[in-house]
Design goal:
The complex is a heterodimer. By secondary structure, chain A is mainly alpha-helical. Chain A has helices at residues 17-39, 61-89, 100-111, 125-153, 160-189, 197-202, 207-213, 215-220, 244-250, 263-273; strands at 4-6, 11-13, 204-206, 236-237, 260-261. Chain A has two domains: 16-199, Transmembrane di-heme cytochromes, Chain C (Fumarate Reductase Cytochrome B subunit); 213-273, no CATH class. Chain A starts with a strand and ends with a helix. Chain B has a single domain, classed as 2-Layer Sandwich (Alpha-Beta Plaits), CATH 3.30.70.20. Classes of the chains: A mainly alpha, B alpha+beta.
Amino acid sequence: MSDKIINDGGLVIRHDLIELVEHWAIALSGLLLLVTGIFELPMANRYYITSLPGLSWSGDFITSLYIHYAASVVFIAAAVFHLLYHGILGEGGMIPRRGDFKASIEVMKSFFGKGEEPPFHKYLPEQRLAYVGMAFIIAMLILSGLVKTYKNLYAPDMSLTLVLWATWVHNVFFMIFIMAFVSHIGAILLKPNQPMIRGIFTGTVRLDYARHRHPLWIKEMGPVDEVKKEPGPAREVKMEPGPVDEVKEEIGEDPPLPIVSDAAGKEEEQKEKE
Amino acid sequence: MSVDKKTGLNRRAFLKVSTGVAAAGAGLAIPRKGFAAGQKRLATLIDLSRCDGCPGKDIPACVGACKTINRDKIPKIHEPIAEPWPRKTIEDWSRKREVFNRLTPYNFIYVHQAEIDEGGQKRIVFVPRRCMHCDNPACATICPFSANHKYENGAVVIDQELCFGGAKCKTVCPWEIPQRQSGVGIYLHILPSLAGNGVMYKCDLCNDRLEGGKLPGCIEACPQQAMLIGDRKEIYALAEERARAMKGFIYGKKENGGTATLYVSPVSFAALNGTMKKQPGKPDMGPEERRMAKTHKMGKAVLQAPLYGIVVGVAGAFMALSRRKDRVKGGEP
């Protein structure tokens, strides 16, 4: 975690490179697992997916199983990495906190114009709840998938009870995973959440957005953390939050410049200090 | 160890087929209840030098016995059969139950008649065909609902209460053994037009009968003792022994990664296969590879993937901790 305010451009680092790689490794491999899982049902031939350009392989269960396995390697390794890496570093920003359930309801109401959003930490309360839910779904898919893979490789005559458990846990959580994935996409498309979309692509969100919606996060960062861009003139970010109403109007517009002072301004400040 | 000169049957290993009574071998024969599922790995042997196609009978004895045993297996068809969407394939054999010269949902075994030309001499070989009960059957392992399962005794059995009739098992079977009957099964209670299309049927090695200590119907009925069932190792040994004795050939030992059905023939299987044209319900006898073996390397990587995550996660975290420590030492925030 390297959350920082970048003084040049009015941005805040929300996700570091490792987090971005983790997210996209799980997202893309998960998407591939979903698609190849559907092909294994079997659906591709019946629904003429095999007739689509580039998808003739979709009706070949062995090929789609191979791709399903390949995606699983990335999916499982990324999930286990995520747990251990952030667990050891004590980074628990996404772990639900007391009152998150109630707060989530309030936030969802606010999306429909009922009430005001409370100030947020780095993550919204429903993001923290969704994280735990998704982690549970992924854990179930991985555990049941490992049992199924072991059966395929080494134990075709494994106990039928265990095979049925693994199969149906995998199938049920596969359906839940699809719903969770759709909900995830739906949530980020909600207007108030849209400024976060750039975060998961670039790692940064706009400072004005963060100040307005995640003031507790900005506060947690402590004093201004300057990141000097080379080359370029040093500029300083002033952390006094502007009037909320003003910022509100700016949300969704082009990113406004942060309150900055140029080199001359800096000299004046220095003089004042003296 | 005594071996019957006429049958070549290892009396220590097998039940005598014609009577269904354990072979007498100084009390060493396998007791009937020893066939119960899960207690012993079984295999079957089909000796083509013995099968004569049951001349004079309307249908071969093995086929007749199988039909009788499974006569009421398929429940009443729900008519009219729901038309699947968008591909409108319906497979209905309910009005052709009497068919016995190919595999159908109502016929799990048939006898192929091969005419072989041996140096100008015509020779007829009869080849009973049914599910091979493979050692690692893709039909069972990648069934999306685990409706098809390989039991410890070696029988590969489809649970008609769980099967949706997607025919995936048929597609991945190199012999395309399972056959579909539309209009029955669990799919009718869910989304009959959009998902599922019936139930797949095939030989289940009479697993219920095995559990009850009985022989599979086809084996019990064969008047020529052309089919045997017994302990897998001993059946494999007997197949080798018979093949050696007749200077013949074995099929099913390596095909599709190995099976629980060994054919022994005085005629090469390449020659027999030459008489078989693979078509619906009529498998050939080619040198089938186990396609799923191609996924094993990647499958092993899946099982190792948690380890990859652990190693990289722990190493990455300690490197990050070390960097954090260095920053603190250096006075960085």
